[in-house]
Design brief:
Shape of chain A: globular
Number of helices of chain A: 0
Mean pLDDT of chain B: 94
Radius of gyration of chain B: 13 Å
Distance between the termini of chain A: 35 Å
Largest interface: A-B, 24 and 25 residues
Shape of chain B: globular
Oligomer: heterodimer
Strand content of chain B: over 45%
Helix content of chain A: under 10%
Number of helices of chain B: 0
Number of strands of chain B: 11
Helix content of chain B: under 10%
Largest sheet of chain A: 6 strands, mixed
Mean pLDDT of chain A: 94
Strand content of chain A: over 45%
Amino acid sequence: TQLLEQSPQFLSIQEGENLTVYCNSSSVFSSLQWYRQEPGEGPVLLVTVVTGGEVKKLKRLTFQFGDARKDSSLHITAAQPGDTGLYLCAGYPMEYGNKLVFGAGTILRVKS
Amino acid sequence: KAGVTQTPRYLIKTRGQQVTLSCSPISGHRSVSWYQQTPGQGLQFLFEYFSETQRNKGNFPGRFSGRQFSNSRSEMNVSTLELGDSALYLCASTPGDENTEAFFGQGTRLTVV
């Protein structure tokens, strides 16, 4: 069982559609990070959320950290083919010290 | 500022052999963490080194080991390779303070045949 449950696992949508990826846990996190990874490359950090209830925007991407710091979401507006990739949430669970744990990831494919 | 550098990018080894992977963190970063990524298991934490000492460890067998040098560069070693060790091995660099953002290298793709 993953400490961070990420959903959906796969998402195939048309260009211009909106989507939301969820990251949930029963554990409290000191912070949560979102990464995007392309095949054969390392994950690239998109954003870090630290405060419960925090909302951060990065162009068409909106990230939210749950009030209880146990969950997060990534919303993409008007998806484009360039958004295609593996999206990973990751965080430091309060009880694990400095171990960054990852969700299983969401494979997003945006068709033109 | 240079990013995280991992070498080599690709490796092919046979079962039973051993392998050493290298990671140079971002300049000034003192912590290096290693991860194994496979399609079935996702990203799994191997271990973290800080100031030449292993600070955290994941749930991998003793065949997986690592070390860190005084310049913060780190190496990871896998002995007696098994087919299941085929994976993308990623290293992440942080300044060393707890719970900070991690920056990843491009990874080393290890194939065991």
